[in-house]
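ok posting inputs for the zinc ion job
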Amino acid sequence: MVQSESVVPPRVRDLKELVNAARVGEEMFGFISDLYPLCRSITGEGVRQTLRHVSRHIPLEVREVPSGTPVLDWTVPNEWNIQDAYIKNSRGERVVDFQRSNLHVVSYSVPVHTRMSLAQLRPHLFTLPDRPDWIPYRTSYYQETWGFCLSHAQLLSLEEGEYEVRIDSSLEPGHLTYGEILLPGQRTEEVLISTHICHPSLANDNLSGLTVSTFLAKALLGRELTYSYRFLFVPGTIGSIAWLALNEDRVHLIRHGLVAAGLGDPGPLTYKRSREGNAEIDRAVGTVLKHSGHPHQIIDFSPYGYDERQYCSPGFNLPVGVLSRTPYGHYPEYHTSADNLDFIRPSALADSLLTYLSVAEVLEDNRTCLNTNPRGEPQLGRRGLYRPIGGAADPGTLQMAMLWVLNLSDGKHTLLDVSERSGVPFQTVSEAARILARHNLLLKQDVS
Ligand code: ZN
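and the output
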């Protein structure tokens, strides 16, 4: 009899097969290309436009926190917006022009309109002498100042003389804007996926993380989920601090978490462990990377980096790691104009998304099981579960997985324990458990 399963929402384990990697990679790249020109910062219209764009793919709830709101040890800053900025030479030519690259202005620059000599202007100019063609990315969120970033080659070409300097910005009471979506599962405990949305025209850091988060949420939307999934699209540091401050009563529901950042570059995947170091999320990512067949690295927690700094602060100590590709600061393009659309790859974006889906699959399926026939091995051959001809040296991976699952299913070990101890990929262990459960040899218990 053929069962119609079309009305049953696929579980996470089926999703990877539904995702066409080549097509989704191109879609994600297109999504990044649309967002790339926007001038984002930790507040302002660029963030709102970005979240509106995300909202076309997933039903995002956009929150506005007023400037001046105390959040933990911080205060929500004034809102920054910018229309235009330039440096004009004595002939009235724009030698540095915000319209050509939004990286030209130090983020959060206060408005200025004045004339000055090159010597007076010089302390306000930032370049990268080692990379003379790249424009650096600089910010000054919490100290009121102004500045321009330009290529070192541009700086060397500036003549002595008087310059007109204009930054048409505003820094006034307004709001901090962030986006949030909760995909409800059977359990109220949550998997947190957090990504920062505050960088202007930089592709890998962090339009790639924002995009993997969006497409992951899109893939999980409407699925049958064990956990609830909360996605946060927040400005770096102040955004996660604001969310934690405003949600202190529900932080305890976060059972697993990942910070999504730097996911489009061609480098190998890197996982930075949570502060605890051996949380289930650390082990879930570890097993996925181990069996990915691709080079990868796993590094220990340190209190520097992205928003894991807040989630893993000692007063919260959440099991949140960072799953990225090349770590921040370890590629020369980091925080420069060279982190552009040429630096990221559709294939890397797709691989990152599939890895996140694999991790979700482990979290969703990991549970303790009970062998219903623990005294001696159950006779698998009678049930068609054992190869008909005995004696081969290698019983096969699925067969071995069944033996391991039966042996360790004492109600104490989880399927992740089985995968780690046996060296068999989690997906195969999980498949073995499903087969055994179908033959009433195993009782799958709830997630612990
Ligand atoms: Zn950054």
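notes: The chain has three domains: 2-76+175-365, 80-172, 368-445. The pocket of zinc ion is lined by residues 199, 205, 335 (CB under 6 Å).
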